[in-house]
Design a protein that fits this description.
The protein is 47% helix and 17% strand. The protein is of the alpha/beta class. It folds into 3 domains: 100 residues, no CATH class; 86 residues, Ribonuclease H-like superfamily/Ribonuclease H (Nucleotidyltransferase, domain 5), CATH 3.30.420.10; 129 residues. The strands form 3 sheets. Strands 10-9-8-11-12 form a 5-stranded mixed β-sheet, with helices on both faces. A 4-stranded mixed β-sheet has the order 1-2-5-4. A 3-stranded antiparallel β-sheet has the order 3-6-7, with no helix packed on it. Helix 2 packs across helix 4, helix 4 packs across helix 16 and helix 7 runs antiparallel to helix 13. It binds zinc ion. The site of zinc ion has 7 residues, from loops.
Length: 441
């Protein structure tokens, strides 16, 4: 094999002729000069159609390729422009990179693969590109990937959800397939108009094939679902119902902490800052201890008991002894959560019993929660009856939320959506060049 052919193989480029390989001493990188093969030449960058040439364009430019060993590699080529009947004057397509990209396809694919599997810092350090650039790359990789398959195929039971992705009340509307656990669709915004975009894409025939829809209690979701899938069975999203209970426990805990804190500091200190002198305004140790226990109990109260650390289990036991009302709130949350793991017949009995218990519990937050549960009782039981209450759905929800945190720093929500779709959409990125027989060691 000639050197130039070896370089084409190293770079993972197709329909490309390698003209020369040089080392750029100034930049400290290998520069591979190339040109497209004649059948890949003179094509529109947007539609790939063969078009008449226009001019030589702005000159030579470089694309970042995958490193060769310890050295960065750039591909360099001319960038002539063509005149497309549909797109006007555009830079001609190149077979080694996506239109408008500054990296080769193999580089893009590798970054997308890394972004769905590694931490932000690992991706940036290994590839030496900024996280924002990673965002642009996953965006264009997903744009190509979603063309290769029908993501709405066989959709029967879906979950609709809204997820906040920035502190400033920015939301995504997401749709998951309950049968495969895949993320099917996501878009910026949380309102009826956004959700209608999904049903428009789905089309009338496929809307009619939807049998179950789970969602939280948002009125706009209910409205659009009634409009587009009137026959589908409506289910409450167990993830949200448990989240309501978790939020209620947290509210009770904050109240308890405020009370304990006030009790532990009986009067305001005046004068110099710092530790009060002995005998002047010191607080009884017991009160202070109780305040500390309540303050540090957040995760012990909110986590599932099977995930508690030993220390958190002790905290929970202390809460049981020190603050019975807070402990009761915890038990109410846990028993509601467990109802979703029961068989339907048992769940009917237990949910009725839970409602009675919550109504009489003398904790305002839970009396209020009980009212919402009564309102949504039918859809909660429907979720349990039709098996939309399993752990896989909860795990899909958790994963999407995790990605919104990882994607923080991307320039646009499109990049966040692309990363979520590549990670959870059922078509994960693949490493380039793995179709050749590999040498294993
Ligand atoms: Zn074109």
């Amino acid at each position: 094999m000639r050197n130039n052919r070896i370089w084409a193989r190293i770079l993972g480029v197709e329909k490309t002729v390698v003209e020369a390989v040089e080392f750029d001493d100034v930049e400290g990188c290998v520069v591979v000069s190339v040109r497209p093969m004649s059948r890949a030449r003179s094509r529109c960058g947007m539609c790939q159609r063969r078009c008449p040439g226009y001019d030589n364009g702005p000159g030579r430019r470089r694309w970042r390729a995958l490193d060769a060993g310890l050295t960065s590699v750039f591909i360099e080529a001319r960038t002539p422009r063509v005149s497309c009947g549909e797109h006007g004057v555009v830079v001609a397509a190149v077979p080694w990179a996506r239109h408008g990209a500054g990296h080769t396809k193999a580089f893009d694919e590798t970054v997308a693969w890394l972004a769905t599997r590694c931490s932000k810092s690992a991706v940036c350090e290994l590839t030496q590109i900024a996280w924002r650039t990673v965002g642009s790359i996953v965006d264009r990789v997903w744009a190509d990937t979603c063309e290769t398959f029908d993501r709405f195929d066989g959709l029967r039971r879906i979950g609709i959800d809204e997820i906040s992705y920035k502190k400033s009340h920015k939301y995504l509307t997401v749709v998951v397939d309950h049968d495969s656990g895949r993320l099917v669709w996501a878009a910026e915004g949380r309102n009826a108009a956004t959700l209608r975009l999904f049903f428009d894409l789905l089309g009338e025939q496929r809307c009619a094939a939807i049998t179950h829809v789970s969602a939280d209690a948002a009125a706009w979701i209910a409205k659009v679902v009634t409009e587009r899938c009137p026959e589908a069975i409506r289910c409450a999203d167990p993830f949200h119902v448990v989240a309501w209970a978790t939020a209620a426990v947290d509210k009770v805990r904050r109240g308890a902490w405020n009370r304990a804190r006030v009790k532990a500091t009986p009067r305001k200190r005046f004068g110099k800052r710092g530790r009060p002198r002995a005998g002047t305004g010191n607080t009884p140790d017991a009160d202070r201890e109780q305040a500390t226990v309540v303050k540090k109990s957040r995760w012990a109260l909110l986590k599932n008991p099977e995930n508690l650390t030993e220390k958190q289990a002790v905290t929970l036991r202390l809460i049981e002894l020190e603050d019975p009302a807070l402990h009761r709130a915890y038990l109410l949350k846990e028993s509601l959560r467990l109802i979703f793991r029961m068989k339907h017949d048992d769940a009917v009995v237990e949910l009725a019993r839970w409602i009675g218990w919550a109504r009489r519990c003398r904790i305002p937050e839970f009396v209020e929660l009980q009212r919402s549960i009564v309102t949504h009782q039918d859809s909660i039981l429907a979720a349990i009856e039709h098996g939309l209450s399993n752990g896989r759905i909860e795990s899909a929800n958790t994963k999407i939320r995790l990605i919104t945190r990882v994607a923080f720093g991307f320039r646009s929500p499109d990049a966040l959506i692309a990363l979520a779709m590549l990670s959870l959409g059922g078509r994960p990125p693949r490493l380039p060049g793995r179709n050749h027989p590999q040498i294993r060691q």
